[in-house]
Specification:
The protein is an alpha+beta fold. The protein is 22% helix and 35% strand. The chain contains seven helices and 30 strands. It is elongated, with a radius of gyration of 43 Å. The termini are far apart.
Amino acid sequence: MAKKRKSSKNNSSKSNSRNKITKYRKPLNVNIGMIIFSVIFFYVVISVIMYFQTSHIVRYEVEEGSLATNNIYRGVIIRDETVVFNQSAGYVNYYAREGERVAKNALVYIVDETGRLSENLEAAAMGENSLSEKDLAEFKSEIINFVHSFDCTHFESAYDAKYALKNTVLKLANVRMLDNISDLSSAAGGNIINYFYAPTTGIVSYWTDGYENLKVQDVTADTFDTKKDYEKKQILSNSLMAAGDAVYKLSTNENWSLVIPVDAARGAELLKEEFVKVRFLKNQYESWGEVDLFTNADGNTYLQLSFTNSMLTFVNDRFLDVELIVEDEIGLKIPVSSIVQKEFFLVPEDFVIPGGNNGGDSIMRQCFLEDGTISSEVLEVEVYNFDSESKEYYLDSSILDAGTVLYKLDGQETFTVSKRATLIGVYNMNRGYADFKQINILYQNDEYAIVKSNTKYGLNVYDYIVLNADAVIDDQFINVAPGTLVPRD
């Protein structure tokens, strides 16, 4: 019985071992294809990472062009103005039309102290009246000027035109009553009329704004802020005034000026012109203004344009929009992002040997032989600019060192390199590396600059330059990828 039990146990053990399943592990089959794929994958990943971490060099093709400059400015008018104050309280009636030139001692206005004359004038005006051809011409002229000069952005000019027409109407009515004024005065009960005459000859205007004594040196940025403190007060005929109120003003000089804010660089360019042609946008009239430049107390630069005519045309204006008619600068058009500054050594003309072995310029510098003997050697250099006033060449600081001793060609005189100066330029890439080229900027805005063409050490049309000067360094070899050429406009 014992033997049978043992045999049964062995059979059970064998059965369990046969039922146990072991998972088969497939061996890694590394072949050449997988290796190549892994290498390519890692190369692509590294290239993408480096692409986004590297500054990309883009080339730009230089072309001829010009900049459309904004030559429209808003200026403040400065002229010789004298404010005349009322001497007698009462109702004021004018007899000189606004913008009319009056002679010295000519009647300008009267004052009705009681107001009875004004009532009689209004009653007389209720009758039927007709305008002469001259009167109609005055109205037509004022209305046409308003229609042609009206700008919705300056709607206040509509009120100016309204008051001017109203004063014209009252002036015409008052002139008709002037012949009968003595009778009206008697009917009103006594001598209640005061007559006032012009103290000097000039152009009459019936408004004040506090800028009558403004000088060029007093102009600031706040002067042009008409929404802040500026107020133009119209003086109406047949209105009640106290003694001492401003009753009218006289512009006594045909010479006047317009002051406009400009940036310092633009102002310096216009100052060289001496006279600038100006178009007044109000009536499209053109005139020549003499140019002067000021830097006022607020630190800003202002251009004064002085005129000897047309003062009468704008006697009712304090601010004018004008266009400066100047020729656009034409030259080589380059992006502002291409411009860079570089430092150079200055070497006198006598120490630069023109026309070396390869046609370039060269210098003779001091050197030391192996035994310590002082000698000299000729070194070819690239000239980046020549200052015709100081008679000095700009040479690359990477070739020379401060303290380098140079010889004249005859070897009789020496010069020690030390003086430095900076040039403005761009990196030319025609030869496959970043080659600095000096430029002379004629005009510049936020995006582009116009530089002088046909300069000895500068750029030429169709040269390739680096679009972003910060992306390269001096003499860096440049490999531009396809599709990185910025097309010309």
